[in-house]
Amino acid sequence: MNDARAKGILLVVEEPKDRGYSEFFKRELEEIVRSADLEPLYTFECKVKNPFYRYYLGKGKVQEIKDFILQNPSTSFVVFNIEITPSQQRNLEDFWQVPVYTKNGIIHEIFARRARTAQGRIKVELARLRYELSRLSGKGNEFSRLGGGIGTRGPGEQKIEVERRKIKDRLALLRRELKKIQQRMETQRVARTKKGIPQVAIVGYTNAGKSTLFNVLTKSRAYVADKMFATLDPAAKKGYVPEVGEVVFIDTVGFIRNMPSTIKDAFRATLEEIREADLVLEVVDISDPDYVLHLQTIHETLREINFHECPQIIVFNKIDLVQETPFIASETKNDYPCLFLSAKNRTGIEELLNEIAMRLKPLMSHLSIEVAYEKLPLLEKEIYRQGYIKNILPKSPQNVILECLVRKEALSRIRSILEPAQYH
Ligand SMILES: Nc1nc2c(ncn2[C@@H]2O[C@H](COP(=O)(O)OP(=O)(O)OP(=O)(O)O)[C@@H](O)[C@H]2O)c(=O)[nH]1
Ligand SMILES: [Mg+2]
User: Cα separation of 122 and 232, whole Å?
Assistant: First the structure.
């Protein structure tokens, strides 16, 4: 099955600002390439202080790669972990005679393939067009050089202008479409919050197991895959937490370090949805050698959307893949509570539910209500939507005492069922 995958060279360039991260970039690029259904054949690493104009890389390196391609005719692409200009890309393609990609280009491609809903598709196209537009600006400079003397508009520049206009028109159309869809979604979201059900957002690095955990907690079947960015559209579904009652869990798009800014912008709104959450579960793949970096990325991203102060639980997932439970330093955890589990094997889920319950309980009020038997069914129904009944005790032939836990925001509705005097 995998034999049909195109094989290619990974080029990991370490720029001075990224010193020391090349191993991480290498693993990340490999994973991104695999997620795009391509196969890494060989990885070249190089340090570049000052990029060269023509090929970005020095002549020696360009030739070394050319020799490798000649000796390995199955090489069908080269991918860079950094951005190079469109002209450098073309020059290299001419010299190596294989397509040249960049990491950001591939990420846009993966997002384009994964988007399922109308909203997801529009966001991905918006991101891709913005990316193309940014590259066109580079192209414009290069074309204008061909365009003759100072002050004249060369033919290249005019062509670029037409392309740029086309992209801008399409961008405007897509933005309008997206706005319409988002207004619809906003209504649904408001309805959800109004109901007063606690919300728990599941966030984390891509491929950490967020959707797997979401499925376990909500007993549903969101798309799970051993690929990066399997989830693009946030999913929200109800689950049940003991002593709290119904809780809405929100599955989200995965984070990645150095996410292309175009994609980040497109999905910022999606991520901002989690700002309604009462609690965040940060899912981390403990079996990944880079889990500490992943955790940092999550914290940085939450800070970017100004959401780092929300109560959080760190969930170290895939514990089944490690021999020993590692010691986690407190600065790594940011002092948040943490626990270890396997979403796939469903071990540690009960402990997680207890921890969630502990964090959500302060949102709930304990009530002890004396109520007439005939009002009980109506009240029970309301409470089960908003919380949890702990006990029903007979008080008199007409009345019972109902002990329950209800979300604070829901108190007014319960009040409207009862007479205020009966409510303690
Ligand atoms: N061994 C093991 N594998 C797991 C566990 N949880 C999830 N996985 C696997 O990890 C892969 C990624 O899982 P997903 O749930 O799709 O991850 P995600 O975080 O939603 O990924 P994106 O949506 O791409 O960001 C899948 O192959 C899962 O089967 C676990 O506890 N143990
Ligand atoms: Mg997912």
Answer: 12
